[in-house]
Amino acid sequence: MGLSRPHKVGNGVSARWVSLFCIASFFLGVLVVNRLWGVPDPEKIDEEASSLEKRQLRALHLNVNCEKKEAADRAGDILFQVSQTHDVIMALDKTISSLEVQLAAARASKADKGEGSPVVTKTGSKPLKERQKVFFVMGIMTAFSSRKRRESIRETWMPQGYELKKLETEKGIIMRFVIGHSATPGGVLDRAIDAEDEKHKDFLRLNHIEGYHELSSKTQIYFAAAVAKWDADFYIKVDDDVHINLGMVGSTLARHRSKPRTYIGCMKSGPVLANKGVKYHEPEYWKFGEEGNKYFRHATGQIYAISKDLATYISVHRHILHRYANEDVSLGSWFIGLDVEHIDERSLCCGTPPECEWKAQAGNPCAASFDWSCSGICKSVERMEEVHQRCGEGDEAIWHTSF
């Protein structure tokens, strides 16, 4: 017939369909290959991820280091500011303390001119316009019956006359026997002290009635009177049966001159004696706890020194400071609760010969000597000269000692 039929391949599939199938297979292959080329290599993925993680960690580490450095810098700045603030506070504290001392001294000086003065003033005497600036004031506690003791001191370690005045002007050392008045002012006892003072000019007279059981009160009034009269770095209390080497005392105090609120002496803590009739009986023993307890640490009463601010504190607050039976205990109690440095100075409590003699021969003279068994030099009137000869630093030592 005139129509031609499509040519068939061996199994009956036409060539056209074979061509279409080949073309379709070609495009399908291209599509599959393109898809396979778009999938990244797993190892490369791991490498890239690892590299990215390292970069992130490095950035984080740098950030942390920067933060640490900034924190350290801030901490350093804070510490520096704290240090500066502390220095400023300390400077202000010293300034305030100095102003308080000056104010208290001015009040004490003003009180010295009015009623209730701690000092007995003579009629017609001119008030001091300004307190004399000195190194230390030494008050030698004495009684009406102790004239021979005073003479034994004048003949040994205490300069007299011109030398006493020279000691004040050249060394800034004031030395006075400290005494009050009798129960009948103007009586024979007071007149005897007036005559002795007229001769030696070495007394500080207090507005105080003398009596053994009034030693705590006398100590308070002494410091108030001394602060009102002299502007000293230190104020010393010493008994009139103790031997003193003035050069050693001056050298000892000079080591602590720049310190505030210093309390210098032979520190002890003796038993509180509750039994009546015994020496140093403490009527208020119950305040110190159970029977058999000891006192708080305080300087023994034969000799001690306190700095200007502590003496001023006593002067200002003397009317409300409690007084115990023993004056050294009283003094120690006044400083409890205050920021006070207790300095245990053993050169202020040497024994009499041979102890102080050995130390003097070794080139280390004692500042003060006495017998513990007698709370002073036993039979001091008879023995003061001997102690001075064997344990003294030499009469010229005070003039060659620099403070």
TrEMBL record:
<dbReference type="GO" id="GO:0008378">
    <property type="term" value="F:galactosyltransferase activity"/>
</dbReference>
<comment type="similarity">
    <text>Belongs to the glycosyltransferase 31 family.</text>
</comment>
<dbReference type="InterPro" id="IPR002659">
    <property type="entry name" value="Glyco_trans_31"/>
</dbReference>
<keyword id="KW-0464">Manganese</keyword>
<dbReference type="Pfam" id="PF13334">
    <property type="entry name" value="DUF4094"/>
</dbReference>
<dbReference type="Pfam" id="PF01762">
    <property type="entry name" value="Galactosyl_T"/>
</dbReference>
<protein>
    <recommendedName>
        <fullName>Hexosyltransferase</fullName>
        <ecNumber>2.4.1.-</ecNumber>
    </recommendedName>
</protein>
<keyword id="KW-0328">Glycosyltransferase</keyword>
<feature type="transmembrane region" description="Helical">
    <location>
        <begin position="15"/>
        <end position="37"/>
    </location>
</feature>
<keyword id="KW-0472">Membrane</keyword>
<dbReference type="InterPro" id="IPR025298">
    <property type="entry name" value="DUF4094"/>
</dbReference>
<keyword id="KW-0812">Transmembrane</keyword>
<keyword id="KW-0333">Golgi apparatus</keyword>
<keyword id="KW-0808">Transferase</keyword>
<keyword id="KW-0735">Signal-anchor</keyword>
<dbReference type="GO" id="GO:0000139">
    <property type="term" value="C:Golgi membrane"/>
</dbReference>
<keyword id="KW-1133">Transmembrane helix</keyword>
<feature type="domain" description="DUF4094">
    <location>
        <begin position="14"/>
        <end position="109"/>
    </location>
</feature>
<comment type="pathway">
    <text>Protein modification; protein glycosylation.</text>
</comment>
